[in-house]
Task: inverse folding
C-alpha cells in the first residue's frame, strides 16, 4: 500500500473569543464548539481524517462587520492570539490574517505585520465591508501590499447583503435557511466579487496580485466560457478567462465533487487548485474520503493535496 499522502487544508476556520462578542457565524453548538477549539479536538479530528496541516482563518463574519475604530486595534490582538495557536503546534497549523477592512490602510499595515512578524501566509476577508464589494478602489492599498509581500488574499463568503436577502431569498429562508449560505447565497455573492475583481482593473494595477476563492472557485470555472464570451466586446485584448486564470487560485472547500473538480482542471489547470475542507462547516472525513478516489494521476493528486499550497503559501 502506498504511504498516506501529505494533506494540507487551507480554508479551515476558528472563532476568536473577542470577535465572537461582536457576532458569530450563526451556527449550531456542534460547530461552535469546534470553531472555539485550536487544540485537542481539532487535532484529533485532523488525525482521524489524515489531514496534516490546517491553514487557519477566522470564521464569518470576522472583522468585516466591525467598525474601523474597534477593528483596527482588535485585529492586532486577534492575529497575535492566532499566532500563539500556531506556535503551540507549528507542524499542524499555519494561518491567514484577519484584516480590519473598514480602514484599508490599517488593514494593509496589519497584513504586513502579520506576514513579516507573525509568519502568516496571507489573509482572508469575509463577505462585504459595510455593504461594499472588496474590488472597490478604497481597498486597493490592501492589494498593493499583498503584491509587495507576495501573499494571496482569500475572498470568502458571508451572509448576503440584506437587500439581496430581501429581494432574492426571503420567500424560502424560513423553510430552507441554507439558501442564504452554502446552498446558494454564499456562491452568488462571492462569485460576484470574483467577477468584479476582474472588471475593476486591479490586476492591471497589481499584476502580481493573487486571489483565492473557495468552494471550487464559487462556480466561476464552470462559467468561464460564457462570461468571457459575454464580455468579448469590451474585453478583446485580454479575455475574462485570461485574467481569471492568471490571478485566481481555487480550493475544494465544502465541494467534494469529481465532475466539478474535472471541469475546474480543464478550465484552469491543476496547478491552481488546492484541497480544502471548510472545517468545521464541512466534515474532515467527507473531504478526506473523497481524496482517496480522485480522478487524477499521482502527480496531479500530489499537487492538489499539498504541492500547490506549498508553492503558493511558501510552506
Ligand atoms: Mn469557509
Result:
Amino acid at each position: 500500500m502506498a504511504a498516506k499522502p501529505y494533506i494540507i487544508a487551507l480554508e479551515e476556520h476558528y472563532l476568536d473569543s473577542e470577535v465572537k462578542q461582536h457576532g458569530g457565524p450563526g451556527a449550531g453548538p456542534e460547530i461552535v464548539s469546534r470553531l472555539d477549539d485550536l487544540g485537542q479536538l481539532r487535532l484529533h479530528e485532523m488525525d482521524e481524517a489524515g489531514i496534516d496541516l490546517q491553514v487557519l482563518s477566522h470564521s464569518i463574519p470576522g472583522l468585516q462587520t466591525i467598525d474601523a475604530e474597534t477593528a483596527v486595534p482588535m485585529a492586532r490582538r486577534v492575529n497575535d492570539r492566532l499566532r500563539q495557536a500556531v506556535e503551540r503546534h507549528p507542524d499542524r497549523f499555519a494561518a491567514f490574517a484577519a484584516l480590519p477592512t473598514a480602514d484599508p490602510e490599517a488593514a494593509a499595515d496589519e497584513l504586513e505585520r502579520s506576514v513579516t512578524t507573525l509568519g502568516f501566509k496571507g489573509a482572508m476577508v469575509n463577505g462585504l465591508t459595510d455593504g461594499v464589494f472588496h474590488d472597490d478602489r478604497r481597498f486597493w492599498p490592501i492589494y498593493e501590499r499583498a503584491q509587495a509581500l507576495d501573499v494571496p488574499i482569500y475572498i470568502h463568503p458571508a451572509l448576503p447583503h440584506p437587500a439581496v436577502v430581501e429581494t432574492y431569498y426571503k420567500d424560502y429562508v424560513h423553510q430552507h435557511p441554507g439558501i442564504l449560505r452554502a446552498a446558494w447565497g454564499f456562491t452568488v455573492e462571492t462569485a460576484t466579487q470574483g467577477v468584479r475583481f476582474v472588471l475593476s482593473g486591479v490586476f492591471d494595477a497589481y499584476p502580481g496580485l493573487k486571489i483565492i476563492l473557495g468552494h471550487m472557485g464559487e462556480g466561476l470555472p464552470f462559467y468561464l466560457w460564457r462570461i468571457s464570451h459575454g464580455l468579448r466586446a469590451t474585453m478583446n485584448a485580454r479575455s475574462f478567462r485570461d485574467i481569471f486564470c492568471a490571478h485566481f487560485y481555487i480550493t475544494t472547500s465544502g465541494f467534494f465533487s469529481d465532475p466539478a473538480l474535472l471541469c475546474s482542471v480543464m478550465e484552469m489547470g491543476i496547478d491552481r487548485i488546492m484541497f480544502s475542507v471548510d472545517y468545521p462547516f464541512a466534515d474532515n472525513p467527507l473531504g478526506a474520503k473523497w481524496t482517496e478516489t480522485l480522478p487524477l494521476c499521482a502527480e496531479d493528486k500530489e499537487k492538489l493535496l499539498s504541492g500547490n499550497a506549498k508553492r503558493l503559501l511558501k510552506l
